[in-house]
Amino acid sequence: MMLSGFFRLGVWQNFFRAWRNGFSGNLEGEGFTLGGVYVIGAGRQGVILEHREKEFGDKVSLPSVLEAAEKIKPQAS
Question: Which PANTHER family match (predicted)?
Answer without folding.
Answer: PEROXIREDOXIN-LIKE 2A (PTHR28630:SF31), PTHR28630
